[in-house]
Amino acid sequence: MCGIVGLFLKDKKLNSQLGSLVSNMLVTMSERGPDSSGLAIYKKGKLNKIKMILRSENPFEDLEELQKEFLLKQKLNISLEQNSNHIILTINKKDFNDVEDLLKKSFSTISIMSSGETIEIFKEVGLPKNLIKRFNISDMSGTHCIGHTRMATESAVTTLGAHPFSTGPDQCLVHNGSLSNHNNLKRILINEGMEINTENDTEVAASYLSLHLKNGKTLKQSLELALSDLDGFYTFLVGTKDGFGVLRDPISCKPAVMAENDFFVAFGSEYKVFANLPDINHAKIWEPEPATVYFWNH
């Protein structure tokens, strides 16, 4: 049992409230998953820039070493911003591959949470309220956000095993359920060049979708292919640069509910997550159909 939330804003006037609104939604789901929690928030990007969200075991020391390596030694045009034990590294697009390779080779205490023009992922072991306070999520603004609070079943309780999982640029996935064929699928994906770092079946699902997107499929096509290739029970919420998509397996035993009005589209594992959203009394509220892809984008 895990809790999923998502909020896609139609009204730009609400962008400054996104962090606060999603924080309330995720805290409401705390009882569904006390082990770890995380959020992917999509913000306005900068032209020809990539943001890399890094988690560090030693953030103060690593921040200094990153400055020495990239500013002084490599003489790259970068910016660094620390948020607790996460570091936001902003670089020129043309430098991304070199920077990513160097991080993986030379910074053993750093893990890459996400990369892209707009996505920022913050996740840690523990309850949503602790995550929100630690990273000051309530004060963040953006266009859309997805979040997750996890009850671990098949893999260890670690930060890297927490959701969301990001396996492609500006892409991420949160998941409630369990896949039965993820080990076989993992071997196939690794042979196709995908990098998978945990034993979590959600990372396999995220990598599966990222591979199809990389190969030219749309998100809708990728999710439709997942219906035949992924075995198990699942509710997926997928974040992209422009919006998010929803998919439930053909049996749909995992709970899911949606709400939509002129201000937003919202997703939750339970109805109560919508209670404090703007003008919720005038929203259409429904349960997404089994084996049906839903997607909203700007």
Kindly describe this structure.
There is one protein chain. This protein is α+β, with helices and mostly antiparallel strands. It folds into two domains: 3-43 and 139-297, Aminohydrolase, N-terminal nucleophile (Ntn) domain (Glutamine Phosphoribosylpyrophosphate, subunit 1, domain 1), CATH 3.60.20.10; 45-117, 2-Layer Sandwich (VC0802-like). Helices cover 27% and strands 33% of the residues. The protein has seven helices and 16 strands. It has helices at 18-28, 59-73, 96-106, 128-135, 182-191, 201-214, 219-229, and strands at 3-9, 36-42, 49-56, 79-83, 86-92, 110-116, 119-125, 144-150, 165-168, 171-179, 232-239, 243-248, 257-260, 264-268, 284-286, 294-297. The strands form three sheets. It has a seven-stranded antiparallel β-sheet with strand order 7-2-8-1-14-13-15, covered by helices on one side. The protein has a five-stranded antiparallel β-sheet with strand order 9-10-11-12-16. A hairpin with a 2-residue loop joins strand 9 (165-168) and strand 10 (171-179). Helix 5 packs across helix 6 and helix 6 packs across helix 7 (219-229). The longest helix is centred in the N-terminal third of the chain and has 15 residues, at 59-73. The mean pLDDT is 95.
